[in-house]
């Protein structure tokens, strides 16, 4: 079965600090995505990637960077964490058919910025 | 720009009743439409999708959805509903081309009372 794992599962960070969220998939999928979920909202796309060493901006990329060093790994980096970045972050993957394919989601990382 | 609207933030019904969760979309081209479910404290799971062809698509867990181009809707249905269907349901739209981004609605929280 498809597997997407995320680490850490929860994190408390200080304002202005650097935060790195990691995602690992064993699905052999080409596409990987980072979303954030805020209370009362759906998921919003931050960054995505369809090949290693390349990332693309999603709908809300400001304040975030992404890194895809290999097909299996995709990281989300908050260089200067802010209170507004408190949210639950989900990583997902899908196969090469992209839009035709369902996305497989990780368990999420709950980030609290104080 | 594409958008997805789920007009009902919360739906409550009794076990055994029929459920229908509404979703409407705005997109200039042919849409790829998805439904995902998020059980309390869990990540998102794929339910079903419409790409092309039959306008009624069947998915997992006994759910089906009907695509209606005439009114830009993709409503999720199940009969009868079970208490275990209580969850948050998200409708999503994929933009085509080479940019396989999912745009989510805000979700509908379904409560099925025993």
What's the layout of helices and strands?
The complex is a heterodimer of chains A (about 110) and B (about 110).
Chain A: E1 4-7, E2 10-13, E3 19-25, E4 31-37, E5 43-51, E6 54-57, E7 65-67, E8 73-78, E9 87-94, E10 104-105, E11 109-113
Parallel strand pairs in A: 2-11
Antiparallel strand pairs in A: 1-3, 3-8, 4-5, 4-9, 5-6, 7-8, 9-10, 9-11
Chain B: E1 3-5, E2 10-14, E3 19-21, E4 24-26, E5 32-38, E6 44-50, E7 56-58, E8 64-68, E9 73-78, E10 87-94, E11 102-104, E12 108-113
Parallel strand pairs in B: 2-12
Antiparallel strand pairs in B: 1-4, 3-9, 5-6, 5-10, 7-8, 8-9, 10-11, 10-12
Please describe what this structure looks like:
The complex is a heterodimer of chains A (114) and B (114). In chain A, 0% of the residues lie in helices and 52% in strands. In chain A, strands 2, 4, 5, 6, 9, 10 and 11 form a 7-stranded mixed sheet that branches. Chain A has a 4-stranded antiparallel sheet with strand order 1-3-8-7, with no helix packed on it. Chain A has strands spanning 4-7, 10-13, 19-25, 31-37, 43-51, 54-57, 65-67, 73-78, 87-94, 104-105, 109-113. The radius of gyration of chain A is 13 Å and the shape is globular. Chain B has a single domain, classed as Immunoglobulin-like. Chain B contains no helices and 12 strands. The chains are: A mainly beta (114), B mainly beta (114). The A-B interface holds A 31, 33, 40-45, 48, 50, 56, 58-59, 90, 92, 94, 98-100, 102-108 and B 4, 6, 9, 32, 34, 42-46, 49, 51, 90, 92, 94-96, 98-107.
Concise description?
The complex is a heterodimer of chains A (114) and B (114). Chain A contains no helices and eleven strands.
């Amino acid at each position: 079965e498809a597997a997407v794992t995320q680490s850490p599962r929860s994190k408390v960070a200080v304002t202005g600090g650097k935060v790195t969220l990691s995602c690992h998939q064993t699905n052999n999928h080409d596409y990987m995505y980072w979303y954030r979920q805020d209370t009362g909202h759906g998921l919003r796309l931050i960054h995505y990637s369809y090949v290693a060493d390349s990332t693309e901006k999603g709908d809300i990329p400001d304040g975030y960077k992404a890194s895809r060093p290999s097909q299996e790994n995709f990281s989300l980096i908050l260089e200067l964490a802010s209170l507004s970045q408190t949210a639950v972050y989900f990583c997902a993957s899908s196969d090469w058919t992209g839009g035709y394919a369902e996305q497989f989601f990780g368990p999420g990382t709950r980030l609290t910025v104080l | 720009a594409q958008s997805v609207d789920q007009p009902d933030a919360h739906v409550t019904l009794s076990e055994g009743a029929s459920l229908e969760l509404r979703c409407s979309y705005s997109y200039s081209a042919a849409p790829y439409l998805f439904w995902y479910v998020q059980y309390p404290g869990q990540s998102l799971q794929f339910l079903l999708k419409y790409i092309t062809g039959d306008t009624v698509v069947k998915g997992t867990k006994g759910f089906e959805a009907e695509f209606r181009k005439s009114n830009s809707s993709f409503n999720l249905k199940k009969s009868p509903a079970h208490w275990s269907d209580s969850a948050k349901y998200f409708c999503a739209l994929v933009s085509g081309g080479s940019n396989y981004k999912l745009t989510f609605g805000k979700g509908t929280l379904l409560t099925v009372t025993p």
